């Protein structure tokens, strides 16, 4: 038989990860970092937190080995420690939604799903087929820094808050497939509603950038100092 004290120590070490995940705000920070490296100030602004609170949450995630840091000049950027952290976060959502009915109800309320009526969606493989066939354009409606950090090749970047004033940049005779951070992100839902209300044919990617990365599909990036183009990117999905 093993030593009971050593066994207890082992499970306490495992529990460090569970404890770090035991905060909704820390999960939100992981969700944001799943889009690419971010500074503390950027994470704080996007998550609606103070700098001190954000730093505290990031410290807890780092102590659990879930995030790492890299210095770029005078800026320290946080990132997920490895792809398996993104996979863990994605699986946590699946388990929670499968075993907790409250998760599904909360998700529906947040995404604006009324009486089961949601915006139309397509899967990743169908999106790739439509791109190759020239049947659709891809619209990234996340904030610009997230597009710079990584996006679907060939996607045009128009953040959701800029979309009403930039509709003319989207061809009126081609279907738009909008995407955002992931299956629990509202941005693509709101973009499709806006486009449909303006008479544009639009659907959304069923998931988002997090799942796209985990599926090991191609990802395009831009230098941090480069702003996303207000036109179609040159590269396309192969």
TrEMBL record:
<feature type="domain" description="Rhodanese">
    <location>
        <begin position="132"/>
        <end position="221"/>
    </location>
</feature>
<dbReference type="InterPro" id="IPR001845">
    <property type="entry name" value="HTH_ArsR_DNA-bd_dom"/>
</dbReference>
<dbReference type="InterPro" id="IPR001763">
    <property type="entry name" value="Rhodanese-like_dom"/>
</dbReference>
<keyword id="KW-0238">DNA-binding</keyword>
<keyword id="KW-0804">Transcription</keyword>
<keyword id="KW-0805">Transcription regulation</keyword>
<dbReference type="InterPro" id="IPR036390">
    <property type="entry name" value="WH_DNA-bd_sf"/>
</dbReference>
<feature type="domain" description="HTH arsR-type">
    <location>
        <begin position="6"/>
        <end position="100"/>
    </location>
</feature>
<protein>
    <submittedName>
        <fullName>Metalloregulator ArsR/SmtB family transcription factor</fullName>
    </submittedName>
</protein>
<dbReference type="Pfam" id="PF00581">
    <property type="entry name" value="Rhodanese"/>
</dbReference>
<dbReference type="InterPro" id="IPR011991">
    <property type="entry name" value="ArsR-like_HTH"/>
</dbReference>
<dbReference type="InterPro" id="IPR001307">
    <property type="entry name" value="Thiosulphate_STrfase_CS"/>
</dbReference>
<dbReference type="InterPro" id="IPR036873">
    <property type="entry name" value="Rhodanese-like_dom_sf"/>
</dbReference>
<dbReference type="InterPro" id="IPR051011">
    <property type="entry name" value="Metal_resp_trans_reg"/>
</dbReference>
<dbReference type="InterPro" id="IPR036388">
    <property type="entry name" value="WH-like_DNA-bd_sf"/>
</dbReference>
<dbReference type="Pfam" id="PF01022">
    <property type="entry name" value="HTH_5"/>
</dbReference>
């Amino acid at each position: 038989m093993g030593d009971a004290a050593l066994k207890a120590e082992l499970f306490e070490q495992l529990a460090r990860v569970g404890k770090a995940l035991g905060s909704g705000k820390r999960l939100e920070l992981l969700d944001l970092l799943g889009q690419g490296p971010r500074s503390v100030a950027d994470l704080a602004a996007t998550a609606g937190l103070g700098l001190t609170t954000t730093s505290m949450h990031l410290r807890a995630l780092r102590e659990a080995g879930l995030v790492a840091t890299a210095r770029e000049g005078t800026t320290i950027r946080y990132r997920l420690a490895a792809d398996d952290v993104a996979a863990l976060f994605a699986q946590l959502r699946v388990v929670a939604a499968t075993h907790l009915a409250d998760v599904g109800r909360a998700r529906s309320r947040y995404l604006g799903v009324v009486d089961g009526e949601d915006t139309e969606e397509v899967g990743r493989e169908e999106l790739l087929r439509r791109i190759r066939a020239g049947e659709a354009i891809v619209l990234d409606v996340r904030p610009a820094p997230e597009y710079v950090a990584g996006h679907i090749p060939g996607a045009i970047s128009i953040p959701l808050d800029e979309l009403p004033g930039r509709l003319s940049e989207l061809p009126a005779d081609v279907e738009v497939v909008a995407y955002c951070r992931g299956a629990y992100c509202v941005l693509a839902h709101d973009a499709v509603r806006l486009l449909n209300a303006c008479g544009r044919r639009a659907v959304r990617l069923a998931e988002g950038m997090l799942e796209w990365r985990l599926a090991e599909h191609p990802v395009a990036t831009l230098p941090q100092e480069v702003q996303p183009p207000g036109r179609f990117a040159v590269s396309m999905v192969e």
